[in-house]
Amino acid sequence: MFIEKINKETLLKPLQTVIGIVERKQPLPILSNVLIEKNKSGIRFLTTDLEIQITTEAKYSNLSEEQQSITVAAKKLQEILRVVPDNSYISLEIQDSRLLVKVNKSRFTLQTLPAQDFPKITEQLVNSTKIDLEQKLLKKLLGSVQYAMAQQDIRYYLNGVLLVIDGGFIKLIATDGHRLAFTSAKLESSYSKTEVILSRKTVSELFKLLSDSDEKISLEIAEKQVQISFSDVTLTSKVIDGKFPDYERVIPNYTNHLTLNRLTILQALQRAAILSNEKFRGVRFVLTEKNMRIVSSNSEQEEAQEDIENEYHGPALDIGFNVNYLLDGLNNTNSAEITFSFGDSNSSILITVPGNEDFKYVVMPMRI
Predict the structure, then answer these.
(1) Considering the domain boundaries, does residue 265 fall inside one?
(2) What's the burial of 278, exposed, middle or buried (CB within 10 Å: 0-12/13-18/19+)?
């Protein structure tokens, strides 16, 4: 018997932790499988797509001393475990090249592939920088920038997030060429400067796995690889080999500022977005003394207009932006107020939080 009478949740929870990077159709069939390794102290689950590897362990003392391992279709096993009754006890039995799953009076027979053929990622953490920080901090930092990552851009280095350790600070930057998000936080210690580009898939999976807890995580950064360990989870990922744009040059230093209630401008933009062009999603900001007018229109000659009174005293401006980009920035900060900073009618807009230098969001203008 591989595993005998184990509670459903003891198997399902760790499997759900590692399954996010698994896809049913893979160039190598074994990559659709999960590697399950059993020893006397617990059960280890491992998945990989050759770029990212996730491992976690379920502590379970009622196991035989014999060390065994198998690989089985991850999604199929998850679906079986998900639909069996709660509080069920499950037994797994290896029969030749198959895995027999027994649950109450149900039986499921799944194909397996040899565990020794499973392609684990080799650790490449020589001369790495290792830092410790709270789970909730890294989750917050990722959430502040991940929406600005490119999607399948030919400039592959934009399909991810730049992670910089610089002295006593950690900085994360994402850009798709149309907007740029920057965030930073102070670390407990100081480190030599190092930077890597985390892939889009790594960022998305890590954000899902992290919780809003004070529990410390270990972040290890090497030239070609990063490894993040927290709770009973270890995520190992290759990094993108490329030169990220000089983000410091993109972030402007403007003198015309407008501070608004975040929810007021967010809701006004949401209303204006309804009648914006479905393809280009443009809105215009028309700024005059003490007033901001938001205007949108579409190909059917429909128009929305929102007026927001404010304390703006800068030059009059008429400038267009993609409304989705603006909404992304406003939806991913929870401050009560935000500040818009402007150059001229051909310049980008800078969105910041009053009194907080740790968040900057730049959106390029568009012709409307």
Answers:
(1) yes
(2) exposed
Q: How far apart are CA 195 and CA 299, in angstroms?
A: 45
Q: Is the pLDDT of residue 41 over 90?
A: no
Provide the token pair at 327: 């909404």
**What is the span of the domain harbouring residue 281?**
252-363
Within a domain: residue 368? no
Per DSSP (E only), the strands in 177-255 are: 179-199, 216-221, 225-230, 233-238
Domain boundary (201, 218, 249) is at 249
Inside any domain, residue 122: no
Q: Which helix (H) or strand (E) holds 284?
A: strand 282-288
Answer yes or no: do 260 and 284 share one domain. Answer: yes
> In the β-sheet with 291-297, what is the strand arrangement from edge to edge?
303-309, 291-297, 282-288, 317-322
Tell me the backbone φ, ψ of residue 209, rounded to 5 degrees. Answer: -80, -30
pLDDT in tens, 297-345: 999 999 999 999 999 989 999 999 999 999 999 999 999 999 999 999 9
The reply to whether 56 and 94 lie within a common domain is yes
Asked whether residue 195 is assigned to any structural domain, the reply reads yes
Distance CA 164, CA 287 (A): 36
Q: Are residues 174 and 76 in the same domain?
A: no
**Phi-psi category of residue 70: left, alpha or beta, with phi > 0 → left and psi -120 to 50 → alpha:** beta
Domain holding 346: CATH number? Answer: 3.10.150.10
- Token reading at 19: 């399954």
d(CA 310, CA 192): 44
The answer to whether 12 touches 82, Cβ cutoff 8 Å, is yes
**Number of domains into which the chain is organized:** 3
Alpha carbon 244 to chain centroid, angstroms: 18
73, 111 contact by CB (below 8 A): yes
Rounded to an integer, what distance in angstroms lies between the CA atom of residue 207 and that of residue 169? 20
Query: For the whole prediction, is pTM greater than 0.90?
Result: yes
Quote the CA–CA distance of 360 and 357 in Å, as a whole number.
7
One domain, residues 191 and 292:
no
